[in-house]
Backbone:
């Protein structure tokens, strides 16, 4: 084969990862370049687009050198990118803003404006992006009202990957996948949505041209080709968002196979063959390809809950773990394992960072429910781990309503290091939980899309050869019955606290710095 290698570039919020992958899915080399997130105010979270662009150039150059491959052996470069970013540029691609990331919260008040004044629900139904400050739609509304001069000057409003392509090729293109996460893109028409554009006062020509995720661009500027160590005619495949590509990378793209990721935050995602939005507004729908759509929900309170236990609740125990030369998480888990499934009736609502999917209640807060004198620290640890699974289960239930029952769960993220946590997932959900070996799942997904774009494969079935299931967990039916009782109580407690969540959030806002 003349061109045996694909380069994948994954533009994340903390780093850009580059990989050289061969046609059997083997990763020959990888490289990661970090860059800062600027938070001059608590509600701001920005990055420097040029730092990211430089990371792409340097990352590709580094990975080509590490893998010791020739430019002539590169089939294509294919991209994965974080969602929801927004940059305003002028006609000459000068920056009018930094890259405003998904985590920027400045537009939070526009959720209410959209819902109450502008038929935000219909906009969500058309665009598939939940009404949340992460969404570029809300960010643009904020900009129009709060930075009118920049808003007027802007030639284009783009995301970080569009910026990279504009620098390299002088073209403004956005793939359907990232477009579908802007809150501005009509999923069924595959066009910018008129109602959403009206809501934020942006004209269609101020946005990039939407293209398929397998769209290829060629003929980059010579100086950049030289910087990357590639031929200037190397095809660049626009690719898709990191979220939908991760589903592909773990092989979760068939009916009923859902991907569950729990890192710091968490998400549940499944693939459907045409866009579906949720009449109850709970879930997102993002494109992978014209005939593959990813539906799901994200939670704020994933692994960060266990970190909170380690660093705040069970500090002495964590220290004891360290003294024994263990990872504190593993030691805390061993304590949790001394307690029976269901933590002897102690339930934890892990809503410390407020709630995203399924109910999007930013005022929700954490709750231990059912505490008695009988309960010890180890019950609390176990209840927190179980509570995170209850949260995931409530998103999974919403997803099942839209796209059918679960056949299998594919687990990834930090929690997949814990056999105990994986077993709890199998016992609470009643589905088997399998752990794939692919760590760089978004990068592998991007490489698959690259092969498809280059006409080297005709569908995604090869993913199954690229990844293996390392181990899998079956449901313990006795535990499942018990958890069914507890999740019912969990849900009732959650719904009954609605007003009290608002009250305590208001109190906290007024009384804490
Ligand atoms: P990120 O989202 O930053 O990529 P990771 O995917 O590495 O984070 O996940 C970090 C989380 O994984 C931690 O907060 C913790 O909850 C969980 N975790 C890490 N190691 C373990 C372990 N040995 N046992 C249980 N949970 C773990
Ligand atoms: C994407 C999004 C963010 C979120 C950040 O919704 O605003 O609140 O939290 P995580 O836990 O996803 O990093």
Residues:
């Amino acid at each position: 084969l003349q061109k045996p290698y694909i380069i994948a570039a994954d533009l994340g919020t903390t780093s850009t990862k580059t990989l050289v992958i061969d046609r059997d899915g083997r990763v020959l080399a990888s490289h990661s370049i970090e860059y800062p997130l600027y938070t001059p105010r608590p509600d701001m979270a920005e990055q420097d687009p040029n730092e990211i662009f430089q990371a792409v150039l340097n990352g590709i150059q580094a990975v080509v050198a590490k893998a010791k491959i020739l430019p002539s052996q590169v089939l294509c470069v294919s991209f994965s990118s974080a969602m929801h970013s927004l940059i305003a540029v002028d006609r000459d691609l000068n920056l009018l803003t930094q890259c405003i990331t998904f985590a920027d919260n400045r537009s939070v008040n526009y959720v209410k404006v959209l819902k109450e004044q502008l038929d935000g629900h219909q906009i969500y139904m058309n665009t598939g992006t939940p009404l949340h400050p992460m969404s570029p739609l809300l960010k643009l509304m904020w900009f129009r009202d709060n930075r009118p001069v920049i808003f007027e000057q802007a030639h284009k409003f783009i995301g970080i990957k569009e910026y990279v392509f504009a620098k390299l090729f002088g073209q403004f293109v956005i793939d359907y996948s990232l477009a579908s996460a802007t809150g501005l893109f009509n999923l069924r028409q595959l066009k910018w949505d008129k109602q959403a554009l009206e809501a934020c006062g942006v004209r269609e020509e101020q946005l990039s041209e939407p293209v398929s995720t397998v769209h290829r661009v060629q003929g980059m500027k010579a100086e950049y080709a030289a910087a990357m160590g590639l031929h200037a005619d190397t095809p660049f495949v626009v690719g898709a968002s990191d979220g939908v590509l991760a589903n592909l990378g773990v092989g979760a793209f068939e009916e009923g196979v859902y991907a569950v990721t729990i890192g710091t935050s968490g998400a549940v995602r499944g693939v459907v063959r045409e866009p579906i939005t949720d009449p109850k507004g709970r879930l997102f729908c993002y494109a992978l390809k014209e005939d593959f759509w990813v539906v799901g929900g994200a939670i704020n309170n994933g692994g960060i809950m266990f970190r909170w236990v380690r660093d705040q609740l069970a500090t002495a125990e964590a220290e004891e773990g360290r003294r024994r030369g263990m990872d504190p998480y593993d030691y805390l888990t061993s304590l949790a394992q001394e307690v029976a499934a269901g933590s002897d009736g102690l339930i934890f609502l892990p809503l410390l960072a407020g709630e995203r999917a399924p109910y999007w209640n930013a005022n929700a807060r954490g709750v231990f429910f059912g505490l008695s004198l009988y309960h010890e620290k180890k019950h609390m640890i176990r209840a927190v781990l179980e509570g995170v699974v209850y949260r995931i289960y409530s998103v999974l239930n919403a997803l099942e309503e839209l796209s059918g029952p679960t056949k299998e769960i594919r687990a990834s993220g930090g929690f997949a290091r814990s056999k105990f946590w994986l077993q709890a997932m199998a016992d609470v959900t009643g589905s088997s939980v399998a752990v794939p070996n692919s760590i760089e799942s978004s990068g592998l997904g991007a490489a698959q899309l690259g092969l498809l774009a280059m006409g080297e494969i005709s569908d995604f079935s090869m993913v199954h050869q690229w990844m293996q299931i390392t181990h899998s967990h079956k449901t313990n039916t006795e535990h499942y019955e018990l958890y069914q009782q507890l999740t019912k109580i969990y849900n009732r407690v959650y719904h009954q606290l609605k007003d009290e969540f608002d009250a305590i959030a208001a109190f906290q806002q007024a009384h804490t710095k």
